[in-house]
Amino acid sequence: MLQRIASLLLLLGALLVPALAGPTPVTAPIVTVADDDLPGAHALVNSPSGREWLMRVTPAGVLKTRYTIDDDPFWTDWSTIAGSYTSVAGTTATVDGARRLVMAVVTAGGTLKYATNTGTEWTAWTTAAAPGGAQKWATVAMTTDAASRAWTFATTDTGNLFYSRQQVDGSWSAWTSVARVGTTTWAAASAGLQAGTNRVWLAAAGSDGKISTFRSAANGATIDATTRAAFQCSGGPSTGFADDVAISGDASGRMWLFATRAATGALNYCQTSAGTTTWGTEKSWGAADWSGVSAAWDVDDAQMWVAGTKTSGEVLYRHTSADPSGWTAFATIDRLSISYGLYLAPGGSVTAGFAAYLTREGKHEGIDTRRYVGAPVHALVSGTVTNIITGCRGAEVGCLSTIAIYNATLEKTVVYLHTNPATTSLAVGTTVARGQTIGYEDYRGVEQVNYQTHIEMRPGWHTVAAASVCSGGEAPDAPCNVQANPIPSSFWTSQGYDPDQDRAPLGGHAVVTDRSGREWDFVITPGGTLVYRYTGMTDWNWTVFGDGYNGSSAGFRSVAATLDGSGRIWVLTTSNDGELRYRRTAQAPSSTTTGAGWDDPTAPQSAGYNWGDVAASTDDAGRVWMFATATNTIDGTADRLFYKRQNNGSWTDMTQVGAGDWRGLSSTVKDGQVWLFAVKGSDSGAYSNRIFYYKSTSDGLLSTSASEFGAGSRWADVSAATDLSGRVWVFAPTFTDGLLRYRYTTTSGWTAPGSADWGELGNGDWVSVSSTVHQGSGKVEVVAAKDDGDLWSFKTNDGSTATVPAGGGWTSELIEPGGGGRGSYGI
């Protein structure tokens, strides 16, 4: 049991839970988050049938449980267990010949009790032996060994630590003390099993913040005091100290240890190599007011789950995934994402928050989500229908559809726009239940590429959405320019939703400067729309570049830009349906023209592949090179990397580079050679998330051998640019700490300012980057996105010439706020 929250324990066996007695299932998230439901001590347990059990002790001492229905995150209502408690833990072990869920609690009076779930109900509490003397139990943690027997570790109010192991007959062994380190008392403990060695590991934090680890003896029945070791991640002394600690083992035999330190607010972690006791490099989720942590391994889905407590009391959780970052985004443990509540299915996302529009005048009065055309849309709150307008597909006047539902108790109207209303079951005056299907996602009132469901909360009784889109030229105090609705975050939170949890990430972006010195920025919005702008525009606003081309509603996936030998701008894109295309300005931009518009997009390039990331460069001969990853599996390998280049008015064939599992791409040209940088994906073993680069040869091909760039870090993306002096600059954000790092070439190799290995730009949470060099000033220009969608620009203070490289520090600017509910990408 941890000092602040109980262990997050996932069911490790074959617990099949039949139709359970007790809580009544509901097909929607909880209606409200009451004060006594705020996060406190908790344990999360996952069964092989797909159900997640959540056990919680609220700050008021109330013990509650709930579980999901089938494989979907629809939670039952809370079921309260009588009594007053301070701590809870859980595991699964063999009880009476069957695998059972076991729960342990510490009561407010300091008593330790157990209960077992029979598959239909919880047994009566069994009281464990007292620790002896005047001591009382304080916290509890549990794990299960290779023999399927449960272990309990518990601290006392005097700072002692004891453990007990379940016996063959179901009884518990006598309590055994874990010796203190000097005079330091024990403050927090956690335990887990190391696969392969079949040793139980104990991690305990002392009152001085120092962490010790222990392992069970060869007999598997006791903790071996001689195995005690002072814990510290490699190269990370901060994880040697903690107020809270969590340890768990995965299926490969690696042990994972997570630690929080209230003094710094940091949450750090590392893991051992498989089957060893050697800890690897420290990783961090930053100083974000973390005060507690718990973790456990999900055997069925092969995922490490982690929950962290904020000083505010909020509990967030995440788990490992196949995403290049290695982790899912953090989610709030008590609320559903608003997109899941709307669709009651995964795969939806929030594509625009509440605030201003990106490409039009007016105020965005709601939240936009999208899943797919035809996806069932469900009522987020109950109420009475006040208006239904069927509308029609497209952006023509009169096509906007509307469903308005008023909740008299909340005194709020929720308006849904752009859907195809379920008119067979809805009519004005109809009572709608929370979670009831009210329509189907569509594009009524918007272009097909912008299919979405707009959700708008309005105080009071209404029949339509607030006026929001201006036609242009309206006065500043016109209704469309005045935010009519309040910020809805607190309302949706009170209804059990998290409006930012499934916020779609910002798509790809690219930056290039033309020969007249204009900077052109291209950005794929969270909704998949490609927009662009350039310096010198009458208004520094975004313009829609196009949809997925030729009427495709798929939206864009990746974008790259380059200047060809004549100075025309080329924009290469991949769409979400896997097509690779490009289009060019009709002529080279100059001081008097911005390129005379855009040529029509080309036909799909190298059809038959599902193209992912794209990059482009123009060599000294004026030939455009394009690079792209193929996300479909070819000969058993996914994410292969290909390239082709112009060749006397045509193109060479697509040629593969290296093996598969490539992610972010970028290219540049130095001394007549094309340099291609690429990030390995998360499925490349020892090479996962490492950057490699290739150089072209004199015969116009890429070399088959690669050099590694930036070993020792897990990189999320990469971008390269060459200044006028020939210095190559490379920028890359890391998954390890979210920092945006850079380095550049010199005559002696790669370096950074002050002869450091790396320079840093901005704070953490960076996820993607693009760069260019200004054709006039020679300044290096960088565009980078954070995980909340904020888009930033960095420029060197000093430009470059043919003999002097760029440098002199950096100037930064927020280009476009994109996350945190601030909207702005609501096209």
Automatic annotation (TrEMBL):
Signal sequence, renumbered to the chain: 1-21
Domain of life: Bacteria
Keywords: Signal
SUPFAM superfamilies in UniProt: Duplicated hybrid motif, Fucose-specific lectin
InterPro entries: Dup_hybrid_motif
Protein name, UniProt field: Peptidoglycan DD-metalloendopeptidase family protein
